[in-house]
Amino acid sequence: MMRQDRFTEGAQEVLAASQEMVRKERHSQWDVEHVLMALLTHEGGVAPGIFEQLKVDGDKLREAVGQALAKAPKLAYDVVQIYTTPRIVRMLEAANAEAERLKDEYVGVEHILIAIADEREGEAARILSQLGIDKEKIYRALQEVRGGARVDSPTAESKYRALERYSIDLTEAARQGKLDPVIGRGDEIKRVMQVLNRRTKNNPVIIGEAGVGKTAIAEGLAQKIVAGDVPENLKDKRVLALDMGAMVAGSKFRGEFEERLKAVMDEIKRAKGEIIVFIDEIHQVVGAGAAEGAIDASTMMKPALARGELQCVAPAPWTTTASTSRRTPPWSAASPPSTWTSPAWTTRSRC
């Protein structure tokens, strides 16, 4: 058996969950079907995303694997020691070989799934074959899920579909009617659209006291994009609300936050200008994720803003705007102030 530190955190969680399943069900052996079920139920895991790309009914697949596990031999007593089948050993060795073939440094969840699909014996192989899932199809789906990312750290899975993990699509929410109507902010939304429509210096910062409705401006913008009531350059764009808290949360390893933010920014760049990022309370970005020897979020984002690879709308309170600008002069210089005032708020194109 391979060393535990050879696996990513996600893969370790899947293998641990599959062994816990053996104990809970009092099964006599740990087999590939346990691992497949753990893959399917792994919260936030890669496997469900791959099956989604393959348009496989997840419920149907879980039901089939569950029926196979129900037929597994059971013990009359609690499991004290877990015995592995030759298929499990073969599958883990194949997963390791797959990681090496793809030039990945760690064995991830995707390598385990590929190894299961390549296994020719047992119920798991039969179920996947019946659903038309094979190794080559998983490869193609994996390209969509992880893009050009490599498994180069124990937390590599957190970089896959980074925008989906760490942002909320306000345009999709507007399309589904999940956003409340924005009343009395027509002029302000129009001004934000004017700034966004510029060739340069096109990143508006909305400045105002807490609770005056700065965030509603982004929601109103998303609603107008869906309705088609925007300039030609803004049509078909997506407004994504970036969740900085989610990116910082759970980042235990040094550099993990930076990896997540870089993955988000890489996806935005690949969208080639189709995405407008909404960063709530932009002053909190200064210092976000920074630890000893690390760089904060604003430092990472400034070059992309300056080059026009990242376009943002960002609200901030009056009380912190001046001090934030002083601490981050390149951020401010990315777009000189263009200021105007309404009864409750002011907007500047500063990002």
Task: Please provide a written account of the structure.
With 351 residues, the protein is an alpha/beta fold. The chain has two domains: 4-159, Clp, N-terminal domain (Double Clp-N motif, Orthogonal Bundle), CATH 1.10.1780.10; 162-349, P-loop containing nucleotide triphosphate hydrolases (Rossmann fold, 3-Layer(aba) Sandwich), CATH 3.40.50.300. Helices cover 50% and strands 9% of the residues. The chain has a seven-stranded mixed β-sheet. Strand 4 (275-279), helix 15 (297-307) and strand 5 form a beta-alpha-beta unit. The longest helix is centred in the N-terminal third of the chain and has 17 residues, at 9-25. The chain is elongated, with a radius of gyration of 24 Å. The relative contact order is 0.11.
User: What is the residue-averaged pLDDT?
Assistant: 81
Q: CATH superfamily assignment of the largest domain?
A: P-loop containing nucleotide triphosphate hydrolases
Largest sheet: 7 strands, mixed
Q: Residue ranges: pLDDT <50 for 5 or more in a row?
A: 325-331, 335-345
Q: Could you give the order of strands across the largest sheet?
A: 1-3-4-5-2-7-6
Radius of gyration: 24 Å
Please report the total strand number as a whole number. 7
Output the helix-strand order. HHHHHHHHHEHHEHEHHEHEHHEE
- What structural category characterises the helix and strand content? alpha/beta
Helix content: 40-55%
Give the N-to-C terminal Cα separation. Answer: 52 Å
CATH topology of the largest domain: Rossmann fold
What proportion strand?
A: 5-15%
GO molecular function: ATP binding; ATP hydrolysis activity
InterPro entries: AAA+_ATPase, ATPase_AAA_core, Clp_N_dom_sf, Clp_R_N, ClpA_ClpB, P-loop_NTPase
Organism: marine sediment metagenome
GO cellular component, one term: cytoplasm
